Amino acid sequence: MFRFILTSICLVFIFSTSSVLAQSMSKEQEKVWKKRQKTMSVEEFKKKVEGYETATDEAYKLEKQVVSTSQALAKREKQIDSLKEALAEAQKEKIVTTTAQNSDSSNSDASSNELDDYSKGVVYRIQVGAFRDKDLMKFVGHKRFHAEEDQDGVKKYTIAAFRDYWEGDLFKKYLREMGVSDAWIVAYKDGERVQIESVLSAQDQEMVQSGGTKNDDID
């Protein structure tokens, strides 16, 4: 393509130069050319004129092609610039979107942490033991393991945490089936241990006293 453009430009320059030379021809040169014209036959002169006209026409076409090609190249460069700008904008939008998603994720994690805050509201835990001599305090760091010591120095250990009494009751029964015979359910409100009766509804209290259950998985 580059060679074609260069050749076209050269041809246009040559024919333009010839035209200028023809316009600035002196009287002596005119005489010389008139003599040469007289020595030519009509057929030869016709061929010369037609050849010149053909060459001029081709030069004009080539000039138009050069202009058209230049315009096409300029248009292509504009398209490339537009694509570069669009790509840059897309990258910016991606960064903003990723940042927003990370922010939403952080907020979601924070909300999740708030939902897992068992120091607030009513919580049911499963007590698995109460000892004076056995110290399991090194395990208290686990979020599902809880320990407390009463005024008499008895250490009470609980595992898991449930918002629903009957879910905790079902887990207690599973533990008993696995051999933890001392497992029983206890209640906390805002981090303080309370009597289950003070947080259970009247209906649930009645069901507990009658030995009933809302869970059909274990009798």
Automatic annotation (TrEMBL):
It comes from the Bacteria. Keywords: Signal. Residues 1-22 form the signal peptide. This is Ezrin/radixin/moesin family protein.
